[in-house]
């Protein structure tokens, strides 16, 4: 599917794409890893061999009270509180012997407040979770009891590939809100960036749109985050579903809050590509990643693949979790 089907029929389009892109039972009825099955030991060795200079890049945004959230779906920015401080140590109120003192702290936050992975229990299709399971059998008030994010512990590390669509296709390195990135845009970016940008089985694909760059410029001008977390944004077109499935990537992350283009491409819809990618493909989606410094370096040296490690915080039963990804070139 390279062209958007009937704009008035998202349900029909989703059903058709789900049938074409399903990985149900591909790795057995008990599988909980989805597309991470593509990221094997050989792929990790390939990724590790890409370290040339030893230069590392953090791909995480900050986790603090000044973050992008403004309450959409009850998501708030992290609240960081100290339990013990240097003041307590100076005053000798901590109760420790021989002069030792310390500091301790706590954070309250939605697990998808900043840079994060969507787990396989995050999105359902007509009450169905990944691998044909009933949503209610997977995620209960106790959390995701089947595909919780902890199942990925130690697995998300391998060859990363950056497609800087903002630079290749956009204006001044950025795509406008509502820009739908199609297969043609992805392939044009690969062609422009050269052999190191080829995308294939087991890769961790990063797509830069420039949306975070624009948000930071607005912040610097005193305008705040605006609708960065929950509003209009460039992103993947629904028509990329078959390409994502055929490429056999292990995961994909973007510098936007929702991975896919907003507004969505149908007259009435909410995140239709999520509805295909997570419960049917079992594809891991990363959102709000900071790709700017890495992209600038790639633009200089012309190398767009690297070693990437991106393990989420293994919160038992979580349907998504914070991540502090590191790319090494």
From TrEMBL:
> Which superkingdom?
Bacteria
What InterPro entries does the annotation carry? KFase/CYL, KFase_sf
Read off the Pfam families from this record.
Cyclase
> Which Gene3D superfamilies does the record match to this protein?
Putative cyclase
A GO biological process of this protein is: L-tryptophan catabolic process to kynurenine
Q: Which GO terms describe its molecular function?
A: arylformamidase activity
Return the protein name: Cyclase family protein
Q: Give the originating organism.
A: Pseudonocardia broussonetiae
């Amino acid at each position: 599917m390279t062209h958007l089907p009937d704009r008035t029929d998202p349900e029909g389009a989703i059903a058709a794409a789900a049938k074409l892109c399903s990985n149900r039972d591909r790795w057995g009825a008990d599988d909980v890893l989805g597309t991470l099955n593509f990221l094997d030991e050989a792929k990790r060795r390939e990724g590790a061999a890409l370290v040339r200079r030893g230069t590392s890049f953090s791909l995480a945004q900050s986790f603090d009270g000044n973050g992008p959230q403004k309450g959409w779906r009850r998501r708030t920015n992290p609240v960081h509180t100290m339990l013990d401080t240097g003041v307590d140590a100076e005053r000798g109120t901590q109760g420790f012997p021989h002069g030792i003192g310390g500091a301790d702290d706590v954070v309250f936050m939605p697990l998808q407040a900043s840079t994060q992975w969507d787990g396989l229990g995050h999105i359902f299709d007509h009450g169905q979770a990944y691998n044909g399971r009933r949503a209610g059998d997977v995620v209960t008030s106790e959390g995701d009891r089947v595909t919780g994010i902890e199942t990925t512990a130690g697995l998300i590390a391998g060859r990363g590939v950056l497609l800087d669509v903002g630079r290749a296709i956009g204006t001044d390195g950025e795509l406008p809100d509502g820009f739908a990135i199609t297969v043609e845009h992805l392939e044009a970016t690969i062609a422009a960036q050269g052999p190191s940008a080829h995308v294939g089985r087991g890769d961790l694909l990063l797509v830069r749109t420039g949306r975070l760059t624009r948000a930071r410029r607005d912040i610097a001008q005193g305008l705040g985050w605006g609708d960065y977390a929950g509003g209009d944004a460039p992103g993947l077109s629904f028509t990329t579903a078959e390409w994502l499935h055929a490429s056999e990537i292990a995961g994909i992350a973007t510098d936007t809050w929702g991975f896919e283009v907003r507004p969505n491409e149908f007259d009435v819809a909410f995140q239709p590509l999520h509805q295909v990618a997570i419960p049917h493909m079992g594809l891991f989606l990363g959102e709000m990643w900071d790709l700017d410094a890495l992209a600038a370096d790639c633009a200089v040296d012309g190398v767009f693949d690297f070693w990437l490690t991106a393990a989420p915080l293994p919160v038992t039963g979580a349907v998504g979790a914070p991540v502090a990804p590191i790319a090494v070139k």
